[in-house]
Amino acid sequence: MTIYVTSKQKRSSFCCRWFSWGAIARGLAKAGAKVFLSNHHIEPIRKLADEIIANGGKAQTAKIDALNEKEVNDYVNEVVKTAGRIDISMNLIRTEDLQGIPLVDLSFEDFIRPIRRVSESHFITGTAAGRIMMRQRSGVILSLTATPGGIGYPTAGGFGPACSVIEKISLGLASELGGYGIRVVNIRSGGSPDSQPFVDAIAHGGQKAVDFIKKIEDDTMLKKKPVMNDIANAAVFLASEMAAGITGVTIDVTCGTTTALNYKAPGIAFVQTRDN
Predict the structure, then answer these.
(1) 60 forms bridges with which residues in the sheet?
(2) What is the CATH number of the domain that holds 62?
(3) What is the tens place of the pLDDT at every residue in 233-254?
(4) How many CB atoms sit inside 10 A of residue 29's CB?
(5) d(CA 214, CA 208)
(6) Least enclosed by CB within 10 Å: which of 79, 125, 199, 252?
């Protein structure tokens, strides 16, 4: 999905789909933004737009393929004609990754597919929004990844490398666009228990899925996972003037994921303490 937003302060934003896109779009709309939603499939975003409008917000939709450079460029230009500017861009495209299979048993196509999708779409949407923002000399480009982008997880397939690609594209854009007053920030989530993949996992995996999710929660400092509204709130904050000094970084919203070290080790065995 792609979202462009115009707020009460004449701000505008662009986004592509992922599992938190609904919460993020609602959060931006609640903050006073007019959201321009685009997706390869129109029905999901039409339903979301209707919901936003019913709650007093502003939203428009368009059927756009985030992997089609011409469609994206034409669309951003149409949004500018309608809204006057684009102030926020966020790509949340579905990665279509396959997990649960060791890399040595995974086919190359299943490995490379998510990497290819995020490489193409984040380049296309990021540069399209960036060119508009350069003329404006202002704007914010956001993206979203997950913990495999920063730490190793077994059987994550191409998802971890795909997250790393998104984070590096974000960093590259930040280094090039900062001189034009454009901020570029990535959000790293720990996976939200109220997102559809987790809901589906529990529905189909039963107690095994519940135990797995509990294990993930135990791997965090806060012993819980961030819900989708936590991610949405982070995105709204980063898009605001309150985050005017933040760019070129990945913001961690994982509730303190620590690769299962913090709860297993009762203390540091080799640290010497002074006798009383």
Answers:
(1) 36
(2) 3.40.50.720
(3) 999 999 999 999 999 999 999 9
(4) 26
(5) 10
(6) 199
